[in-house]
Amino acid sequence: MFFARAVQPSCFPAQFEQETSEMRLQRLASLVIFSLVAGIGCDNDSGSSKSPSSSSPSPSSTATSPAPSSSAPSSSAPSSSTAATPAPQPSKDTVAEVKDGWGSLKGKFIYDGSPPEPSPLTITKDREVCGKLNLVDESIVVNKENQGLANVVVFLYLKRGQDPPQSHESYAETADARVELDNKQCRFEPHVCLLRTSQTLVIKNSDSVGHNTNIAAKNNASFNQTVPAGSELEHKFTETERRPATVGCNIHPWMTGWVLPQDTPYFAVSGKDGEFEIKDLPSGTWTFQVWHEKARSIGNIEVNGKAAKWSKGRVDVTITADAITDFGDIKFSEDLFQ
Amino acid sequence: MAENEHDTKGVTKGLVVLLVLVVVAVTAVLFWPSGEKPDDKKPSTATVDELPPPTSRDLYVQHCAACHGENGDGRGAAAAYLFPKPRDLRAGRFRLVSTSNNVLTPEDLEAMLVRGMPGSSMPSWAHLSEEDRAGLAKEVLRLRAEGARETFVRVLKEEDELTDEEIAEPAVQKEIEAYVKRFTTPGESSEVPEFGEPDSEAIARGKELYVKQSCHSCHGKEGKGDGVQKQFDAEGFPTRPRDYTKGIFKGGHDPASLYRRIAYGMPGTPMPGAAKATPQERVDMVHFIRSLSDEKTREAAVLKRRHLVVKRVEKIPAGSDGWSSISAAGIQAIPLWWRDGADPDLQVQAVHDGKQIAIRLSWRDGSEDTHAARTESFEDAVAVELYRGDAEPFIGMGGPKSPVDVWFWDADRQTQQLVENTYPNTVVDVYPFSEKVVTTASFDRPGAKTPDQPEVSLPARASGNPIVPTGAESGASSLSVGGPGTVTFRIPQSQLVTADGQYIDDRWNVVMTRSLSVKSKSDGVSLEAGTRASIAFAIWDGAQRDRDGKKLVTIWNDLELEK
């Protein structure tokens, strides 16, 4: 478990603390008691906490920044396990008072190793249009200048039954915005499309050939519609997804994209330099889900030069009010993409 | 720790069981009137009519489980023989939907059960009562709900790493309920407009839209399904765009059904919906697609129950002559492992003279395959499935409680293609200490067993394997079957069917004959003049490597024996 230290914008690099021995003991104890209560063997100690936000100590004690302390995690998660959970539960009414303020999270994903040369795609259909575009596989996009890894998605992970946090007012304006997913030059633009469930997905076809857009969502009804050349259609997701859903075109089977509808506005995808930023998060400790289409289970990684272990790509970060919490450089070794 | 606990549980359980047994035994001794054992009670007088009607679950197990699996996961015992694969009813990727969220309505299911799914091995269930079909639809939707819950709980456990205790919490349970409800509550269903008669203008407009909506990308410019090379469905099985000129439509060929396929697509397949097309545009596309086939072709793809009259005659025709005056019923046979153009044009005639019944089966087969000895060879064959009773059992050879009588004819047996003729010496085991010493090299012997060799040197024949030809048969076998995988050859005394097969002009003509009535149930189904029975057929085409469950089948038909 990691806690990002809050720093002032463009200040010191953040430091990530290894789990303290005390915390580890605490967690171990809770697991043991848990297994006793549940009457099961303890076979899953992959480093994930069953209830990250509830067992997190208050971040203010470790925060070095001058930012105002955020005294309580703003999670409204109900007690998720048993009496063995050590930390006191925040009461429901702390949800409304995010008085501690808002902070941002940023970071940079780095591909550690020699990135694979993007392999050319086999164009099997509409060659006269799509065959001249030198289309390549976009599953791993690395900036050769700085090893920045694009298309890594970071989004707020909410436990089951946990209500999403209040959104900052800066998001209100775009709450019902139209988010475009274009079928452009026989590929999806953007490759990874993120949107809120309150927003409308506009599926466009800028090409001169017809496409269909097939979204294999898990929580939403399946979606597969034709998008004639030059047309567009709108779609609204009713439910949040826990993972980006694949987007495909059955006419042009090489076309792959991803779409992630979320109940919260707290998500970002890394750009061409591997950098991402999520603005105006409520302060407190939150779990973030990190996802990349080829690194399905992000476990052993490196953060600012130190080895770290995440479980299922999840990491706890404490957001400090009125500051940018810098995740730092997150290095994914090439083994992760095998 | 867990193991110990388990042991303790086991012991406790054992003690409880023991205690219950003791209590029951003591009670029995105390309260049974002396001299009366429970067996002495009057036999139950309940008849079939008085038994409680089968529940929808019973019906499902009886008719659907063989292919779709008892729990609906699409992995029934017969699933391996079927293509397209039986739907995983739990996963809910139902293709033939009529709602905006792709959730099936009971009406969608009931309509499909009447029609079956042309182009697949899913037959029509029109022979069941409306009530039974509604029950089946209910059970399928129940399995789907169960599957949705299972899927979600698996995600909770695997992805969210929740324990059973955490899953049991109200907030999580609420989320599960919401998920199940979302995936089992049908969404909006848009009105299907009235279809006028197709005119050339509508068809021309439809043709234009067919290209505009990219239908041609997969279904081909001429609608022959040749637009793409390879496609897969959501389950990972190969799938193909429909060839519209063949007139086979899984979800029905009527305009309204085709309209829904265009509007909603077919979830789980590459087929998208055309949400942006206007109702009028969809109507035009339907007119165009229907213009690529004619009604007769389309109807031919829909399985229909036929009425076969067994004509009373003075004398059963001897051999192949004398059948021309007997009317024939054309019965559709479909391949369980689908191949287009497999229709064998099965024509069935039947006569009886009060004592004997003869059924003549005539079907098209491009090659005479009479040889099954080699591993790479497969033979032509045909089977008649008979059942007498009100509620017809599962079409796939009945079930444990309702066995069917099967008359089987195969070309190999009729032509006596002994294995040893194909592979000289291979089947004859040599028993050096009980046989006369063979002086010449073994290859000098004729292939078949020599008189010097005991019967035991042909182990299969010696052990009475009914598949082994014995030299004096007609090619007919009588079998008893109680569901897929239970084919049993009757004992020799009960082999009462004879058959004669002739291959003439690319057609097999097989006449099967048996006495109308049989002495006992172990001889098969007794038939009687003036009554009815249910009859179905199966055909194997050796050239297509058909064998066992890889075959063509029909649905149940009526067999009416004239007085």
Structure in words:
The complex is a heterodimer of chains A (338) and B (563). Helix content of chain A is 8%, strand content 32%. In chain A, a hairpin with a 7-residue loop joins strand 11 (245-248) and strand 12 (256-262). Chain A is mainly beta and 338 residues long. In chain A, the strands form four sheets. In chain A, strands 1, 2, 14, 16, 17 and 19 form a six-stranded mixed β-sheet that branches. Chain A contains three helices and 19 strands. The model of chain A is unreliable at 1-25 and 27-98 (pLDDT under 50). With 563 residues, chain B is of the alpha+beta class. In chain B, 28% of the residues lie in helices and 14% in strands. Chain B contains 15 helices and 14 strands. In chain B, strand 8 (476-481) and strand 9 (488-489) form a beta hairpin. In chain B, helix 2 crosses helix 5, helix 8 (200-212) packs across helix 11 and helix 10 crosses helix 11 (279-290). Chain B is globular, with a radius of gyration of 29 Å. Chain B starts with a helix and ends with a strand. The model of chain B is unreliable at 1-12, 26-46 and 440-446 (pLDDT under 50). Classes of the chains: A mainly beta (338), B alpha+beta (563). The interface between A and B is large, with 48 and 47 residues.
> What is the CA-atom radius of gyration of chain A, in angstroms?
21 Å
State the total count of DSSP E strands of chain A. Answer: 19
Helix content of chain B: 25-40%
- Rg of Cα set of chain B: 29 Å
Structural category of chain A: mainly beta
Number of helices of chain B: 15
H-E string of chain A: EHHEHEEEEEEEEEEEEEEEEE
Largest sheet of chain A: 6 strands, mixed
What shape does the CA trace of chain A take?
globular
Q: How much beta of chain A, percentage-wise?
A: 25-35%
Helix amount of chain A: under 10%
Unreliably modeled segments of chain A: 1-25, 27-98
